[in-house]
Structure formats: structure tokens, C-alpha cells
Amino acid sequence: MTVAAIVIRGIGLSSNPPGLYVDEAALGYNAYSISQTGRDEYNFSLPTYLRSFGTYTPALVVYLIIIPIRILGLSVLSLRATPLIIGSLTVISLAILSTRLIKSSFPVFLITGIVTALAPSHILFSRGFYEPTLGLLLFTLGLAKRPDTIIGLILLSLSTYAYQPQRLIVFLFIACFFIFVRKIPWSKLTIFLISQLPQFYLSTQSGPNTRLINQLWLPQTGHNLLLIIREFVSQYTAYLSPSNLFWFSDPDPQRSLPFLSVFFPWQIIPYLVGLFWIINRYKHYRVLVITYLLFPVAAALTKDPFSTMRASLLFIPVTMVIVTGILLIIRKLNRVGRILASVLLLGLSWGHLYRSLFILLPNQRYLAWNYGYQQLFTKINAYSIPVLVDLDKPSYVQYLFFNKINPNFVQSLAPYLGRDYYRSISWQDYFVTSRVSFRHLDWRNDIYKDQLIVGGPNVISQSQAKEHFLKLEFTIPSPLGESILFAYRTDPAFKCASQTVKPEPCLLK
Amino acid sequence: MGQSRKITILLIAIWFTSLDLYYLNQRRSFYPHPLLGKIFENKLVIILNKVQDPIFRVLDLNRYLFSSHPRENVVYE
Questions:
Q1: DSSP classification of residue A125
Q2: pLDDT by residue (tens digit) across B42-71?
Q3: Which of A121, A185, A214, A436 is the residue whose CA sits 20 to 30 A from B24?
């Protein structure tokens, strides 16, 4: 089971998902920086939240990424090895958890392992996502170890350092567990609260809260109570909707597989069977019911219509419900029926995965994964003239990653934040050298300097290139062969000569 | 369900627009072998998708309670 999970998650890991997303590059480069200097790109020692480009990502996973980067060097493979291991461990921990929550038997263990190992969203999250994957593992381990033990509570506490939404969910879960399941001794709760002291302190800082607050829909509804209730309930039910869980995927193309949602469409049948069974016997499944009802809460407070990342914890109870349904259906089948159903459904699931993960993802979603940046940033190194990079996302971090720029040099360019590290929420592209800069193209000045201008297809049109004497130096093709990134070289002498009224940059020369 | 409505649903399921066929051929070209393309991308797959799509839409509670909010503006694949 573990081997199958590792194989499915590991095939073509460095090239699929295609490219390297900006968030991945930020985590990877900061892990590299910490491994080399003990400090992140802003020269801040061992951060709890990574400021990065103003995102304040929980930094726990960065310390895990350091290990493969130390062994294999900074590369896409060494970066993605961490979620691969975390994801594969989650498969085992969920299988163990199912024997606690559903029934202590080998078939439960095995079926949960297979369902998790093949789950589309979990496979994707084990290939290119870090914080929710680690948060899910820690929470699963905490649940498996039982939330009324010290180790269980510490694991739950640690999960709040791994992923932001868990800062809310863990507290709600412990409160519900305390009220509805079992009293947790105050001595253990005190240890949990002590482990949360850094979080309490950081909650008073604007940085770690910014991203959380920016994502909330509450400021848009104002003080209208009816609107607030309507918005919350609609968002909440969207996360429990079978159509979203089994058919319509996360609207963000970077966070879903083509034509697949969180689970396979056929799994809706065991889901509904399992749900009906559990609702009728909710007293036997109290922890499962609490997790099922509680886990969408944090995600439901945010604006995105169906964010699989923020509701990543919901993966636990929904998997358990599906496994319960499969067990109930299997019970009704004879031996031949069981074998036939297993072969058919495993084949169907594998077919879905092969089509979506290995064929459609690299060929249809390459833009969402910032494909081509590696080739681009390697190629511009061949030019001795300055390079202006005009790309939508903060791509400087991908430049740092692919060129393994010396962290000491980056730290010398970054603004000194000191004690304001967790309060500096306004972010600006600081990485500007004599060789390369990252900002939008300024038509009034940039075309009069001898430089390379690099960007996507919308930065410079063909007519603009002709009008301003920009020469196409090279393009970066997509996996399908069409050009997705363009590099133009300016010709300031020709451009100035063509002007009857000389603009200021020409006169300055 | 009336007879004419059943026929309409059936026609929608088996009617392939030029866009359907364009995407079908495009997706086939992604496969390393043409046979694999024909196995995974064919008209039966399109029909199954068209049949499953309304079933899953019907199962969405938000469709009845909140006019499909919060996913009303999302363009599905």
C-alpha cells in the first residue's frame, strides 16, 4: 500500500505538475537560504511564519524541506520529495485512524489505504503542495494518537504551525471533543495551551493574520446578520455538497486535476450509503460526526467558492464515510462479486488517474503551474545586457531558485525588517540587480535602454514590437509547442533616431 | 418525465458539437500512442460526461437553497 502510494505520487515528480509554482519556489528558496545561513531571504533567523512575498506562510514545512535539499541540492525533485513522503505517510496514518474511528479490522485498514492512496486531490497535494499536506498528516496523527493524550494534543498543536486554517479548527475540535466525547484533563490542556503560546503572540502581529483576514468574505457582507448567515451556510454546504466532492473540481486550475474532483465520481455511491449509515448511528461515530461537521468551518469563512486546500482536513471524515459505504456494499456481495467489483473499480480509478494526472495535467494546466520559467531563467543567463522581467506573479523567487543565487547576496538586497518582520505586510519587489529586475514594463523609458525585455504573450504585441524596433531574441515553447514566454531585445539607437521629437531618455544620452 | 423531454435529454447526450469533437481530437493528440488516445478519449466518454453532469448538478443542495451560490459564476470544465 505504501509502495503503491509512493509510486503513484512519485512517477515523473520533477516534471509533473509541469513547471514550478511561485509558492513552491518561495518555500524552496527560503529552505535553501535557511540551510545555508540559518536565516530566510530577509535575513530573519528561523521564522515561524515565512514573510516571503508578503504571504506569511507557516514555516514548519520549510524545516522539513531543508533535509532533502541538503542531500540532493536545490532542485524541483528535492523540493517535491517532502510532500511525496508526507503524503505517503498520510496514507498509512489515515488507514490506522480508520481502524480507530470505524472498526478495528484489516479490511478497514486496507480499504482506507487504497482509497487514500488513489484519491485524486491527495495525489496532487502530495506532488506540489506543502502546508495543507503536512497539516493533514499532523492532524491525522493527532487523531490517531487520540486527542486526550499529551502526544495527540501536541501533534494537533503542531498542525496549527503547519497550516493557517488549522489555527481555528484545532481549537474548535478540542472544545467539541471535550464537550461531546471525553473530558480532557486540565493538566494536558495546559500543556497544549503552553505549546500554543507562540501562536497567541503571533496572532497579535498583523503579518500572520493578513492573509487570513484578506480571504474572509465578512467585510463584504457588512453588519447584515441575514447576509452573514446566508453567506456562511451557503459556503459551508458547498464543502459538503456531493457534486463538489465528486464531480466539480476546485475552480483554481492549479489546485485540481483536469476532469477530477476530490474523489472519483463512482465513490459517490459508497459515500451516500456510508453517510446514511453513519447518520442513523451517529452516537457510535461521535468523533467522525464532529470532524465531518467541523472541518468545513474555516474554509466556509473564506471567499473562494470551493477551496480544496483550505478544506483539506475534510478529506479525513469524507474518506471514512466512503470506506464505511464500501464495507457495507462489500458485505452484500459474494466472493466473485467482490473480486469483480474490486478489479472493475480499481481499473476505472487507475484509468481516471492516468488520463487526468499523467496526460491532461501536463498538457492542459502548464500555464497554471508557471511552466517555462526554468528554461527562461536559465536562458537569460547567456545575455550580458540587463534583463527586465515583466511577469504577473512575483517571479523573482523562481529566478533565485533556478539560479541558486547566493542567499547572503539576496539578504544584502532585501530590506532590513528586524522586529517588524511579522508586521511588514506591504511587500515590494526588492530584488533588483544590475543584471536583472522584476517589474512592469515602462514604455516611456525601458525601450530606450539597451536591454532584454521578457514576458508573457500580453506584454508586447507584434505591432508594438514593430513600432518600437524590438527584436524577438527567443521564445519559450509550451509542452504543446506554442510560444508562451517571449524575450525581446531593445534597439535604443534606432528607436531614438526614428523620433522626430526626441523624448527625454534620448536627450539624456 | 414527458416523452418529448426524454428525447431532448437523449439528443443532448448523443449530439456532438463541433467544439466537443475539436477538444476530443486535441486530447487524443496528447497520448503517447494513438490507440491509448482512442481508448481514453472517445464519444462514449463524452456521452458519459454529459449524462453524469446533470445528475451531479441535481445533487447540489446549494442549487435549491442559494441559486448555486457560491459557485454560480464558476465556469465548469
A1: H
A2: 999 999 998 899 899 999 989 999 988 898
A3: A121
Interface check A256 vs B, CB under 8 A: no
Question: CB A243 to CB B60 under 8 A?
Answer: yes
pLDDT tens per residue across span A73-90 = 999 999 999 999 999 999
Rounded CA-CA distance A1/A206 in Å is 43
Q: Where are the alpha helices (DSSP H) in A295-430?
A: 296-300, 315-332, 335-353, 361-364, 373-379, 396-403, 407-413
Residue A403 and residue A381 in contact, taking contact as beta carbons nearer than 8 Å: yes
Asked whether residue B74 is assigned to any structural domain, the reply reads no
Select from B30, B39, B64, B75 the residue whose CB has the most chain A CBs within 10 Å, as the one to mutate to test that interface: B30
Average pLDDT over residues A137-158: 96
Asked if residue B42 belongs to a domain, the reply is: yes
CB count in 10 Å sphere of residue A443: 11
Q: Domain for residue B77, yes or no?
A: no
Domain-wise residue ranges, chain A: 2-364, 373-508
Tens of pLDDT along A265-304? 999 999 999 999 999 999 999 999 999 999 999 999 999 8
Q: What is the mean pLDDT of chain A?
A: 94
Question: Which of A244, A318, A254 is closest to A124 using CA atoms?
Answer: A254
Q: What is the CA radius of gyration of chain A?
A: 25
Of B52, B61, B74, the CB nearest to A247: B52
- Cβ-Cβ contacts under 8 Å for A219 (sequence gap 6 or more): none
The whole-angstrom distance between A353's CA and the closest CA on chain B is 11
Which whole number is the average pLDDT over A230-243?
95
Q: Quick check: A42 and A51 in contact, CB under 8 A?
A: yes
The structural domain count of chain B equals 1
Asked whether residue B51 is domain-assigned, the answer is: yes
Q: Which domain holds residue B60?
A: 3-65
Q: What is the pTM of this model?
A: 0.94
